[in-house]
Write a structure and sequence with these properties.
The chain has 109 residues and is of the alpha/beta class. The chain has a single domain, classed as Nucleotidyltransferase, domain 5 (2-Layer Sandwich). It contains three helices and five strands. A five-stranded mixed β-sheet has the order 3-2-1-4-5.
């Protein structure tokens, strides 16, 4: 039996039995940057509220202790920050922190 046949057999066996595992690297912290005009960025990528909520939901499903840090400058309207916080809570996040100064974040991922 060739190596390719053995690998295919293992994959098929895993799919048939539900034993195929996937590894997901879940960060300890997700930093959400809220900018003026309601722009929301995660890892430098702008996201809609729905996209942000889906992303957080995926992380929270894997680790309900993941920390959500909302970074918003003093010029950002409180309503914009609350919208992000509400979306994070709706996605199941329980560890949510709000900061206005990025220098307060240690070991920012």
């Amino acid at each position: 039996m060739s190596t390719r046949s053995i690998i295919l057999f293992i994959i098929l066996l895993g799919v048939m039995t539900g034993a195929l595992l996937t590894w997901v690297d879940v960060p300890d912290r997700i930093t959400i940057t809220v900018q003026s005009a309601g722009r929301v960025l995660i890892a430098g990528e702008e996201m809609s509220p729905d996209e942000m909520e889906s992303l957080i939901l995926g992380y929270v499903e894997d680790d309900d202790q993941v920390e959500i840090v909302i970074l918003a400058g003093e010029s950002v309207q409180a309503g914009e920050v609350l919208m992000v916080m509400d979306s994070a809570r709706k996605a199941g996040a329980i560890n949510i922190e709000i900061v206005t100064d990025a220098s307060l974040l240690l070991n920012t991922p």
